[in-house]
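Propose amino acids for all 401 sites.
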């Protein structure tokens, strides 16, 4: 044990840095997690039989030194798992050494020992889903339960921070409202948040900045003006349905809409829509097959090609693209009465949309003839094979020889 203590003594450097060091340290934004420990030295020992000659810190079993300190506050870049005390018997007292053992040689520290040590990593990193907002965002500083105050700051570049003049307590929500900060008018892009951690409200020398978290301010999306308006597919099982979205406001010339289509909660497709494609605050998404859908959409800058929706997209009510009854028909040959006569044909049609038309033999689409089912084609037909094509108003075709 003595050899171990001698080794430790040879490594210790007792350099008590003036308070300005910790204050300068506080003005920087460190991505690395840091730990602030408060220890006032021998005051933890309550027996006259023991003298604390010195103490030091270990991370696991490796001696570590603070990267900044002031009085009884120490900043470490590794969690100090142990406080090691070097003690000796008090001289001049008639007492039994280490009986009772009120002061141990080694004191274990845990991340939950909030009265001893706290971490500066108190802001949770957002996910790809929660990392954007348009008008406001709810933030929370968590970590050790205690009297800490968290003073909130924001930055556009992650370097120069602006105080919000707002503080919260442990695990208390802070709603950051973009409109409250004139410097952010018409701003979209990166925004960083951090807090100044004040552990001891009676002094400022221990103040330390937290980790910084990065969000993205997006353009606010126009609200829907009513439910989606749908049109069924034009031809049976064809991808020709559509949905029309009406908005309460236009988007600006610097914006575009990212629209994402889902069927039964499964991603189907997405598209970017320019402001010039939204006419009279209305946009129609065409080419949809039958199905039950929702659309989530979000405004963004024209230069932004990110296809991931942020945390506050607008979601339409569920809408249905309906199929139609398939166009079917059948022909009935009307045989001639005499050998020298010509025959005719009757068309019976069902389904489809609107008016029926037929095209006989080698006629083109321009020669289509309207009819109402059932219908006898007036043309007299010679003996042999003939071809009739039947279409509806949407030019859905059902062929029959």
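Proposal:
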């Amino acid at each position: 044990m003595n050899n171990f203590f001698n080794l430790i003594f040879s490594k210790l450097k007792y350099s008590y840095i003036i308070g300005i060091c910790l204050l300068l340290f506080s003005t920087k934004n460190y991505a690395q997690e840091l730990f602030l420990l408060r220890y006032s030295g021998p005051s933890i020992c309550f027996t006259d039989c023991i003298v604390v000659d010195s103490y030091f810190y270990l991370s696991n079993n490796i001696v570590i030194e603070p990267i900044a300190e002031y009085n009884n506050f120490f900043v470490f870049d590794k969690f100090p798992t142990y406080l090691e005390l070097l003690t000796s018997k008090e001289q001049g007292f008639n007492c039994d050494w280490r009986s009772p053992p009120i002061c141990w040689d080694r004191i274990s520290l845990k991340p939950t020992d909030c009265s001893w040590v706290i971490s500066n990593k108190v802001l949770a990193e957002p996910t790809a889903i929660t990392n954007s907002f348009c008008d406001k965002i709810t933030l929370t500083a968590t970590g050790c339960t205690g009297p800490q105050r968290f003073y909130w700051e924001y930055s556009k570049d992650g370097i120069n921070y602006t105080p919000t003049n707002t503080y919260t307590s442990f695990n208390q929500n802070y709603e950051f409202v973009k409109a409250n900060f004139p410097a952010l008018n018409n701003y979209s892009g990166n925004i960083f948040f951090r807090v100044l951690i004040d552990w001891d409200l009676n002094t400022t020398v221990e103040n330390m900045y937290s980790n910084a978290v990065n969000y993205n301010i997006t353009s606010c999306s126009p609200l829907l003006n009513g439910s989606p308006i749908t049109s069924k597919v034009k031809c049976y099982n064809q991808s020709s349905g559509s949905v029309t979205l009406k908005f309460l406001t236009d988007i600006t010339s610097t914006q575009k809409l990212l629209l994402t289509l889902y069927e039964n909660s499964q991603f189907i497709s997405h598209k970017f829509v320019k402001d010039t494609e939204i006419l009279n605050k209305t946009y129609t998404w065409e080419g949809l097959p039958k199905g039950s859908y929702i659309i989530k959409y979000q405004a963004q800058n024209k230069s932004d090609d990110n296809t991931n929706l942020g945390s506050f997209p607008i979601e339409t009510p569920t809408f249905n693209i309906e199929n139609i009854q398939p166009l079917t028909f059948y022909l009935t040959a009307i045989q001639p009465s005499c050998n020298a006569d010509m025959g005719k044909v009757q068309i019976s049609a069902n389904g489809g949309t609107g008016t029926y038309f037929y095209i006989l033999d080698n006629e083109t689409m321009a020669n289509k003839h309207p009819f109402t089912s059932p219908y006898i084609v007036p043309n007299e037909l010679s003996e042999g094979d003939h071809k009739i094509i039947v279409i509806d108003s949407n030019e859905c075709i059902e062929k029959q020889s």
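Confidence is low (pLDDT under 50) at residues 1-30, 97-102. Residues 122 and 142 are 5 Å apart (CA to CA).
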